[in-house]
């Protein structure tokens, strides 16, 4: 989405779109608004999945089909006072909806499964509700359905763990009114310590995030690690004026622009 040094997200998942609320955990909406472009893209990606690929290979394959997709800020709809809506829109993505779509797609064989898996990926216990939305990247490794494992601490001795109060602003108040403060230990690798040994422990398909060195947030941007024949890249929905779309950024260049990285490995 953007280089962290230039733009900082208040929260990762903000969005717009349409579809009815889902009041019952585990249920799938009887009607979901999906535009024609998105519907065709879903079917095309599902047809590509095939069989016999590892999780990382699927993430690489499917995420690559979004390269060039325009970046869109504020893609989700819902707040403590506005009903949450299920957004499925492949015409534009922000950094976290991009990961939502890719992760859900890796576990789906048809469109109905994709919708159900997207709900499970985006919302705790599969309930379409603002308070159940996984607003923070590390929610993926802490709340049901668990989408990934936090492997940051295993990447090297330089890993640092700090106690964060997610959603609490330093001067008081919260980033997201109505959402409780979440006390969570966040582990990151400082950018200066992301050397060849650390990169060598990463796998294609790992979810990479830029650690937030400010109170109340865990990370400020997310993307996907992909090892290519010419070196590692950070595949992400970039809001930089020079990009404004899903791109492959040189991994080491990106890391140097951040305070550090948090790494989740998809299950």
Brief rundown of the structure:
With about 270 residues, the chain is α+β, with helices and mostly antiparallel strands. Helices cover about 20% and strands about 20% of the residues.
Task: Explain what the structure shows.
- The chain is α+β, with helices and mostly antiparallel strands and 267 residues long.
- It folds into 2 domains: 36-141, Putative xylanase fold; 148-266, putative xylanase like fold.
- Helix content is 22%, strand content 21%.
- It has helices at residues 36-49, 55-64, 95-106, 111-122, 196-201, 251-256, and strands at residues 148-150, 160-166, 182-190, 207-211, 219-228, 231-238, 245-250, 260-266.
- Strands 1, 2, 3, 4, 5, 6, 7 and 8 form an 8-stranded antiparallel β-sheet that branches.
- It starts with 35 loop residues before the first helix and ends with a strand.
- Residues 1-26 have low confidence and may be disordered.
List descriptors.
Putative xylanase fold; 267 residues; putative xylanase like fold; alpha+beta; disordered N terminus; globular; single chain; 22% helix; 2 domains; eight-stranded antiparallel sheet
SSE layout and pairing:
Layout: H1 36-49, H2 55-64, H3 95-106, H4 111-122, E1 148-150, E2 160-166, E3 182-190, H5 196-201, E4 207-211, E5 219-228, E6 231-238, E7 245-250, H6 251-256, E8 260-266
Antiparallel strand pairs: 1-8, 2-3, 3-8, 4-5, 4-8, 5-6, 6-7
Helix pairs in contact: 2-3, 3-4
């Amino acid at each position: 989405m953007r280089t962290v040094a230039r733009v900082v997200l208040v929260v990762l998942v903000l969005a717009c779109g349409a579809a009815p609320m889902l009041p019952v955990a585990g249920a799938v909406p009887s009607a979901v608004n999906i535009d024609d472009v998105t519907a065709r893209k879903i079917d095309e990606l599902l047809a590509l999945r095939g069989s016999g690929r590892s999780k990382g290979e699927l993430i690489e394959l499917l995420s690559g089909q979004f390269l060039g997709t325009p970046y869109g800020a504020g893609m989700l709809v819902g707040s403590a006072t506005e009903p949450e809506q299920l957004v499925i829109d492949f015409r534009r993505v922000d950094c976290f909806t991009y990961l939502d779509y890719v992760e859900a797609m890796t576990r789906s064989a048809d469109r109905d499964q994709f919708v159900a898996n997207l709900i499970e990926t985006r919302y705790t216990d599969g309930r379409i509700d603002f308070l159940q939305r996984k607003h923070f990247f590390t929610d993926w490794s802490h709340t049901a359905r668990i989408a990934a494992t936090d492997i940051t601490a295993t990447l090297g001795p330089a890993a640092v763990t700090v106690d964060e109060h997610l959603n609490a602003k330093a001067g008081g108040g919260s980033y997201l009114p109505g959402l409780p403060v979440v006390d969570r230990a966040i582990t990151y690798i400082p950018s200066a310590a992301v050397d060849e040994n650390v990169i060598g422990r990463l796998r294609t398909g790992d979810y990479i995030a830029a650690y937030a060195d400010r109170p109340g947030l865990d990370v400020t941007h997310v993307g996907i690690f992909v090892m290519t024949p010419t070196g590692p890249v950070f595949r992400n929905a970039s809001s930089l004026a020079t990009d404004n779309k899903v791109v492959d950024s040189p991994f080491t260049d990106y890391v140097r622009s951040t305070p550090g990285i948090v790494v989740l490995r998809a299950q």
